[in-house]
Amino acid sequence: MDERETPDRARLDVWLDIACLFKTRSAATNACRAGKVDVNGHSAKPHRMLSVGDAVDITRGRGRKQNVVVLGFADAHIAKADARLLYEDKTPPPTPEEIEARELQRMFNRTQPRPVGTPSRRDQRALRRLKGIQ
């Protein structure tokens, strides 16, 4: 049986994709180029080579940060459960204030009216009358 060797280094953007920390490699590349990914405390470009033990800090939405330590590599995409074995998540759990703020934001977003689409002919005429356009 031919056992494939796992690499001992990998590009940052490829590893982020294989470890399922980003949905696609291009999303990981864009995050690196935007300065959202740091390796060992320094901003990292997508082509940076990672080694076992490197600390990767990812800035997520709303100022949240995810801290992971590289434990291993894979040469191809693997199942998400197996991909979680490639890193150790050191992100501290959210504080009760952060959890409450997220819940309030979710509730606020649900109550906002959403645009229904383009106005009907009748609505367009009413808008023109309001604006004084004939």
Task: Give an account of the 3D structure.
The protein has 134 residues and is of the alpha+beta class. The chain is built from 5 helices and 7 strands. It has a single domain, classed as Structural Genomics Hypothetical 15.5 Kd Protein In mrcA-pckA Intergenic Region, Chain A, CATH 3.10.290.10. A 5-stranded antiparallel sheet has the order 3-2-5-6-7. The longest helix is centred in the last third of the chain and has 16 residues. The chain is elongated, with a radius of gyration of 23 Å. The protein starts with 9 loop residues before the first strand and ends with a helix. The mean pLDDT is 89.
Give keywords.
single chain; 134 residues; alpha+beta; Structural Genomics Hypothetical 15.5 Kd Protein In mrcA-pckA Intergenic Region, Chain A; five-stranded antiparallel beta sheet; two-stranded antiparallel sheet; 5 helices; 35% helix
Strand order of the largest sheet: 3-2-5-6-7
What is the averaged pLDDT score? 89
CATH topology: Structural Genomics Hypothetical 15.5 Kd Protein In mrcA-pckA Intergenic Region, Chain A
Which range best describes the helical content: under 10%, 10-25%, 25-40%, 40-55%, 55-70% or over 70%? 25-40%
Number of domains: 1
Query: How many H/I helical runs?
Result: 5
- List the helices and strands in order: EHHEEEEEHEHH
Q: Architecture, CATH level 2?
A: Roll
DSSP strand tally: 7
Structural class: alpha+beta
